[in-house]
Every structure is written in C-alpha cells, then in structure tokens.
Amino acid sequence: MESVRNALLERTSVRRYEREPIPEETMQFIYDAIRNTPTSYNGQQFSVIDISDQKLKEDLYMLTNQKQLKTCNRLLIFCSDYNKITKLAERKGFEVPPFTDTMDGVTIGIIDAALAMMSAVVAAQAAGLGSNCVGYLRTVDPAKVAEMLHLPKGVFVVCGLALGVPREHPDLKPKQPNETVFFKNRYCEDEKKLVDNLEAYDAEVKHYNATRSGGTTDNDWCDHILDYYRHAMQYRILDYLKAQGYDVKR
Q1: Residues 204/174, Cβ–Cβ less than 8 Å
Q2: Do 168 and 15 touch, CB atoms closer than 8 A?
Q3: Nearest C-alpha neighbor of 212 from the set 166, 168, 171
Q4: What is the Cα Rg of the chain in Å?
Q5: Contact criterion met (CB below 8 Å) for 137 and 160
Q6: Residues 179/134, Cβ–Cβ less than 8 Å
Q7: DSSP three-state, residue 108
Q8: What's the count of helices (H) and strands (E) in the chain, helices before strands?
Q9: pTM for this one?
C-alpha cells in the first residue's frame, strides 16, 4: 500500500491497463473509501455504477472514443442521486420539496459525487492501481448514456473513473504554482503578478507537451483549455437535466 503522500502527489492519469483483474478485496477497499466520503448534510447525494461487463464498456467506448473505457478492468460511474431519498420519503409519506429544481440542489449532488470520486482515486492509487477520470461520459450523449445505464429520474452522470493495473506510467503533469492557487485572506491582490505567473505556467505546459514521453503535442495551457470551452458551448446539459427531473428555476 502506498503512503497517502505518494498517492496524492505522484498520481497520474493512466489510459492503458493490463488485463489482470482487480482483486475483490481491493475493490472493497475502494468501496469503503467511497462510502466514507464527507457529503453535504451527510445526505450522500450520490451513487456509483461499477461496470465490469466488457460489452458495456466497449459500447461506452464506441460512444466516446475514449480508449481507457474498454481497456480498464473496472469502470466506476459517479452520479448525482436524489432518487434514493425521494423513494424513501414517498414510502414514509413525506412530501419531497423541489430541491432538484434549484442550483443548490444540482450543485450539492455534483459536489458529493465528485468528492466520492476523489476518495476512489486516492484509494486506487494507494492500492497500486492506475485511474483516469472521464468527464466526457457526462457530455458526449447524456440521454443515451442514461438509457444505457437505466438511470431513473433524479439521477445523472457526473463523471466516470477507469481503474486497472497500469500498463503505462505517464510523466507527472505540471500544475499551477502556489502563487496562482492559494491566496491569503482575500482573492489575489496583485493581478499583474497573477497573470505573469499564469503566463510562465502556460509556457511550462507547452514545454511539457512538446517533450513528454509518449505522444507529444504543441498545445499550451490557455488556448487548449479555451478550445474545450468553445467545444462545450455546444452541449445541452440543461435540457438533459430537465429530462432527468432537474427543472432548475433558481
């Protein structure tokens, strides 16, 4: 078992995996870490779909073209979930307020699912596994993914997590420096220094992408991320959320 320090600071995104199965005791450790995740009000507004069926993984790969979905041993899909509390409330005769029609309701479910996924990432890394977070499962074709996974109203995909014994060991990606992430007592006081530091980081990412092991690119950080934003403007997530019972009004 790796130390917490190594699990947190040496994690990389792994997209190629060995065929070796993950021991069930390791999966139970990951389950336990997920279940112990801190959540809003201890409401636990999330659920996880653990996919081991190879055909389903390959069907999701065909939809996304994300190779890690078919090469991983297990695919965990983290969902915001208000179906469980709703069904129990109905059985007990309680009226369910339209919390899913608020941005706070949507946000809490996403936060809970994201925290649970990070618990799984750290547990998997500590257990010697590789992992890769796949956000594209949320946006590629939300209605189709919901159909494939039989998601009821009140449940939507937040992110997928591919797990497996790593076949590759990618270089550690550079992250933003302390100066652009952590501010004391208020948001950044020196905007020019902030942008100068971001520009230096942008150049560092460009150099990393041009020299990393495996495939190289000429991507910087800024325009590459903006390109994702441009592409994501086409997504119709609000329509999907409404179809899943989240009619956001406020």
Answers
A1: yes
A2: yes
A3: 171
A4: 20
A5: yes
A6: no
A7: helix
A8: 12, 4
A9: 0.95
Determine the distance from the C-alpha atom of residue 143 to the mean position of all C-alpha atoms in its chain, rounded to a whole number.
18
- Beta-bridge partners for 162: 75, 132
Map tokens 């179809």 to a residue.
243
Q: Which residue in this structure is represented by tokens 């915001």? A: 80
- Cα–Cα distance for residue pair 226/163, rounded to 1 Å: 28
- State the residue for tokens 């060991």: 169
230-239 per-residue burial string, b: 16 or more CB within 10 A, e: under 16: eeeeeeeeee
Contact 57, 151 (CB under 8 A): no
- d(C-alpha 231, C-alpha 246), whole Å: 24
pLDDT, tens only, 68-104 = 999 999 999 999 999 999 999 999 999 999 999 999 9
The end-to-end CA distance of the chain, in Å, is 45
Is residue 68 a contact partner of residue 136, using CB atoms and an 8 Å limit? Answer: no
Tokens for 205, please give them: 């990412």
Phi, psi of 126 (to 5 degrees): -65, -30
Residues 11-33, buried b or exposed e (16+ Cβ, 10 A)? bbebbbbeeeebeeebbebbbeb
Query: Bridge-partner residues for 130, per DSSP?
Result: 164
Q: Which uninterrupted H or E stretch holds 234? A: none
CB 52 within 8 A of CB 74: yes
| Contacts for 219 with CB less than 8 Å, ≥ 6 apart | 205, 206, 209
Give the count of beta carbons closer than 10 Å to the beta carbon of residue 188: 15
pLDDT of residue 183: 97
